[in-house]
């Protein structure tokens, strides 16, 4: 009975986190004609091994967002292209990131050029097989595609490609999202304008990435015409998440965050804090997708994983962790683009105060177009999930207004 319930949990959560677990077919292979189907930057297509997710070594010279290679994907109602593009990690070092670009077949009949929306996916896991671009479904993209928007969905750093996924690491997430927009606009054969309007949306882990991109867009990608950013259920402060997830059914996501911190900041020596059970937890978490993490780690107490018996949250206000917690926290930089932040009051994974405090911090820092709203979620159980389903439609409607030229509102000081 417990297994059945856990499987039900995983399936329900899949809808909110963008995990393609339910009757989703893998990408169609196109390895038969790599020279024709693949555009490779600064490497000989004839020498490409055929493993799409293995970046060339060394990485080609180019600008952030330049496309390294592409591969078409069969789809009945859109032009879908798998891409690898240049980006940067949390420390500004070049890296290769993969994702997909989806252009609907419907003609764009709105004002100006067809917009491109960066869809920052929710938690899929940190194992390479969890990369969203390895299994295509338009289920969560449909509200955007139905409005005629092109969509680019990043895998983030380390999902599919070498190295661990830098899960909810602010700068790495932002770079992956912003460079995905550059890659989409530079991708040949799509009809997308290289300087057309763009938007960003994400929920949960995707909300973290979208909010981080909103903070860094002006400095990192000033040429992008960002009309608006939607950020839902943002895990903005990992020190709070370390406490709220501990012992809960989604504690595996805390494991993902530790893996992300370990990848981006190896000097923290996170494994040095773990006992044998903690090392086993860490090593297994780095290979599994979110559905399996739900069944494997549910209700684990992190105090049972550390050598000194303290929960993970107790380390976050000590050095060297405290400085890193501040570095990855979102809310320190006022976005220069319109942002809508939404959160459910009864969110059972990411505490409601996370999103509200982040938006308040932005307002206090001088942001002029920040709006915070509550997402209504009637069911207390899985409220994070049910609110996430609504968020996808809210974000599409809000971005449509931005692309139509309507000015975004602000309720700073009133929430």
From TrEMBL:
Database matches in InterPro entries: AB_hydrolase_fold, Lipase_secreted
Record Pfam families: LIP
Descriptive protein name: Lipase family protein
Top-rank taxon: Bacteria
């Amino acid at each position: 009975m417990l297994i059945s319930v856990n499987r039900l949990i995983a399936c329900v959560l899949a809808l909110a986190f963008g995990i393609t677990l339910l009757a989703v077919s893998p990408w169609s292979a196109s390895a038969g004609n790599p020279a024709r189907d693949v555009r490779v930057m600064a490497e000989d297509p004839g020498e490409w091994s055929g493993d799409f997710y293995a970046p060339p070594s060394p990485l080609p010279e180019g600008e952030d967002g330049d496309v390294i290679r592409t591969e078409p994907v069969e789809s009945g109602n859109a032009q879908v292209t798998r891409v690898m593009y240049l980006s940067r990690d949390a420390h500004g070092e070049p890296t290769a990131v993969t994702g997909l670009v989806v252009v609907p077949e419907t003609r764009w009949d709105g004002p100006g050029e067809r917009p491109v929306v960066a869809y920052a996916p929710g938690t899929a896991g940190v194992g390479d097989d969890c990369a969203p671009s390895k299994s295509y479904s338009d289920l969560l993209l449909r509200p955007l595609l139905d409005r005629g928007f092109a969509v680019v969905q990043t895998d983030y750093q380390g999902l599919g490609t070498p190295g661990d996924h830098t899960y909810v690491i602010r700068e790495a997430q932002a770079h992956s999202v912003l460079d995905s927009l550059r890659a989409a606009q530079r991708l040949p054969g799509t009809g997308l304008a290289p300087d057309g309007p763009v938007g960003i949306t994400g929920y949960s882990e995707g909300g973290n990435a979208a909010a981080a991109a909103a903070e860094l867009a002006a400095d990192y990608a000033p040429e992008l015409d960002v009309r608006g950013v939607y950020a839902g259920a943002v895990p903005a402060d990992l020190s709070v998440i370390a406490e709220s997830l501990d012992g809960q059914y989604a504690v595996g996501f805390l494991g993902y965050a530790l893996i992300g911190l370990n990848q981006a900041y190896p000097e923290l020596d996170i494994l040095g804090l773990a006992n044998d059970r903690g090392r086993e937890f860490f090593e297994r978490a780095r290979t599994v997708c979110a559905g399996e993490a739900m069944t494997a780690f549910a209700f684990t107490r992190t105090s049972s994983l550390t050598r000194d018996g303290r929960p993970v949250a107790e380390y976050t206000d000590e050095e060297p962790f405290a400085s890193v917690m501040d570095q990855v926290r979102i809310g320190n930089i006022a976005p220069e683009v319109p942002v809508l932040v939404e959160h459910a009051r009864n969110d059972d994974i990411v505490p409601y105060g996370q999103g509200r405090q982040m938006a308040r911090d932005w307002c206090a820092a001088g942001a002029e177009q920040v709006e915070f709203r509550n997402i209504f979620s009637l069911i207390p159980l899985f409220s994070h999930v049910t609110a996430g389903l609504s968020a996808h439609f809210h974000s599409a409607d809000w971005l449509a207004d931005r692309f139509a030229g309507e000015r975004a509102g602000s309720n700073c000081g009133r929430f």
